[in-house]
Amino acid sequence: xxxxxxxxxxxxxxxxxxxxxxxxxxxxxxxxxxxxxxxxxxxxxxxxxxxxxxxxxxxxxxxxxxxxxxxxxxxxxxxxxxxxxxxxxxxxxxxxxxxxxxxxxxxxxxxxxxxxxxxxxxxxxxxxxxxxxxxxxxxxxxxxxxxxxxxxxxxxxxxxxxxxxxxxxxxxxxxxxxxxxxxxxxxxxxxxxxxxxxxxxxxxxxxxxxxxxxxxxxxxxxxxxxxxxxxxxxxxxxxxxxxxxxxxxxxxxxxxxxxxxxxxxxxxxxxxxxxxxxxxxxxxxxxxxxxxxxxxxxxxxxxxxxxxxxxxxxxxxxxxxxxxxxxxxxxxxxxxxxxxxxxxxxxxxxxxxxxxxxxxxxxxxxxxxxxxxxxxxxxxxxxxxxxxxxxxxxxxxxxxxxxxxxxxxxxxxxxxxxxxxxxxxxxxxxxxxxxxxxxxxxxxxxxxxxxxxxxxxxxxxxxxxxxxxxxxxxxxxxxxxxxxxxxxxxxxxxxxxxxxxxxxxxxxxxxx
Length: 512
Known about the structure:
By secondary structure, the chain is of the alpha+beta class. The chain has 14 helices and 22 strands. The protein has helices at about 20-25, 85-95, 110-125, 155-165, 185-200, 245-255, 275-280, 350-355, 365-380, 390-395, 415-420, 425-440, 480-485, 490-510; strands at about 5-10, 30-40, 50-55, 80, 100-105, 205, 210-215, 220-225, 230, 235-240, 260, 265-270, 295-300, 305-310, 315-320, 330, 340-350, 385-390, 410-415, 450-455, 460, 475-480. Helix 2 (about 85-95) crosses helix 14 and helix 4 crosses helix 14. The protein is globular and about 65 Å long.
């Protein structure tokens, strides 16, 4: 009979271990063992790996807990899925498991063709509104580091998502790592495999096909209109991501209920990765430890200031989706071996604060977001160069005379973030930086550089849905994922995509 055991080993013992299961098996040669969770404990020396494992004298049953996409015929009931990011992708896989035919509508290009548009951003400062770091096969997730960490407590759902990713080529370690990560360099091949399987099983994927509007009869979905004509179905899973502003405008103009959603804004901060390693590992930096990360939080009144999407050994990326705007984000390759670490430092912006700033209505947060990105774009004179400022100069309220080297390839120019953001927001960000120096000594003494703006932390709009996940005003419309306000990252978006496919199945079953 299997039992659960907790193990602890000094980190240096696992320095050159490529296959943890094989290594553990050698430690327990007369039993069968499988790691369930592995976490790094750097609170005191020696730094250790804590391993929770399942062990038995009998062979362990193989873990089969992934979405089983099945082949469907051409006459299967169709479900339209708008957007081919993590939410749309997993909605499609779940539809196939349920015997439904997913028809995916994606405004952007496949991953191979998409690379040319990403290169055009960094080399020529050219933005393709339909193919960029946010739009295209795999969505923003394809080029957003591949972090899979989620605070969701639904362990079985998380395990199923991770097992499905492993089934399509992700490293098996993501199933048991405490902070799983795939890496931007490995994600394109993985999403290609998922797309190929969807098509081979009877689904459809239409790239370079822009959603133009819902087709309704008596407030019921009958199809959608696109740049390549009409697609018919009684159900639409709307999984377009948090940067598809035209979707929000379309719903608003059609008087379909949406609401503003609080979100967070700020900038990215860069430190040498060696400094982060030194601080987090207390000088113990050369014994097989991964590049260190951090998570910092501060509170000023009712508003939080926090680090966001921390990227060890990563780069800052240009993530604008329209010409004339500047947006930054971060990602890391799988080895996280670049010399600089970056993270978003952001503060919450409430609906009440937006109203005080003169923004109201369902699109209040979106319009504020746009105003910040456009101001930065105006300062850049049509380029994708980003505003930058030394952190201590930001606190002092002065423009920096000298800037540091940065991983942001399009380049940076000296600017004052005190003039980019309203005073109250800037003051909270300053408070956060000062607090983080107290929590992580050296955080400011290193005089790191700020690059921004960081404005796409989450959707600025929420598209409502009921307990059945159907929009309350449009039968057959299923708002899904991060763009609808129900997820935050790859894993939670994928889980929501699966839930929405289940909702589509139940809706169609009840209304056929």
